[in-house]
Sequence to fold (296 residues):
Amino acid sequence: MIATAITAILSLTACRHSPEKSAELWLGGDVSLGDGGKKQLQDIAGMVKGTPGIVNLEGPVSERLPNRDHLRLWNAPAALAELSGLNVRIAGIANNHSLDAGAVGSEQTIEALRNHGILPAGGTAGAAVLEFNGLVIAVTAHDLTQGVPVNLEADLAAARQHSSVLIATFHITGPASFLPRPKLRHAVEIAYHAGANVIVAHGTHALGPVERRPHAVIAWGLGNVAFACDCTQEEDAMILRVVVGSDKVVSAEALPLRAGLNNRPARPSPEAAAIFDLLEAIGSSPLQRKGTSAFF
Fold:
C-alpha cells in the first residue's frame, strides 16, 4: 500500500507543468511629437496599463526642422520623455520620414532612443530584441514605400531564429485606405510564413481590418497615435494589446483610439462601437466586444 501511494504521488508530480511563460504588450501606429511638451500621450495611460509598448516614430530625433520643398517631421530629444513615460520600449524607425534630418540624423535617433531606454527597430538598427517575462521577443520594422525589400524574408528568418516571439511591423505610404495595398499583402504573407506571431501595419494613417490566423494576429492598419502637426486628419485609430506566449498569441484585443492630432492629446475613442462596426464591415475576423474593447 505504501509503495502504491508513493507511486501515485510521483505520478501526480510528474504531471504538473511549470506555468507557461507569457507577456503582455501593446502596439500603436504613427507618432510624431515635434517639439514635445504638449502631453499628447498621457490620456491613454489607462489603455496600455503600464505594459511595454511598440510604436512607429515618424521623423528623426532632432531639433526643429524647417520645411523646404516637402514636409519634414522631427521629434525633439525632450519629447522622448513622453514615450518612455508611457513605457514605450521599442520604436520603429523605418518609414518615409526617417531621413528627414539626413543620414547623420538617423544615427542620432538611434543613440537618443537608446539613451531613453527605448530600443530602435529597423534601418541600420536592425531588429530590436526585448527580453520580458522569460520570453525573447524580436521586433522588426520595414518601410514599404519603395516596395517590398528584397531582404525581407532573410531579415525575418534571422530575427525568428533566436526568439520566442516574432513581431513584424510594416510602414506603407499612400492615401488613407481601409483596405490593404497589394505590396502590404505580399509583405504580410512573407512575414506570416517566416513565423511572425504579431504583424501590424501603419503609415497611411487609416484603420485596417484585424485578423486572427493559427499562429498569428494581423492588424492591417493601426492609424495614428499622435501627430504634433496638421499634416494628417485621420483621427480614428486603435491600439492593439496582445498577450503572447512562446510562438503563439494567447489573446488579442483592439482598443479604439481618438488620435492626438495637431498637439491635441490622444484619448480613448468616444465612438468605440462605431469603430467595431467599421472593422467588421471591412473584413475583420469575428470580434468579441466587451464594452470599449474587442477581442479577436
Notes: Residues 20-295 form a domain with the Purple Acid Phosphatase; chain A, domain 2 fold (CATH 3.60.21.10). The mean pLDDT is 93.
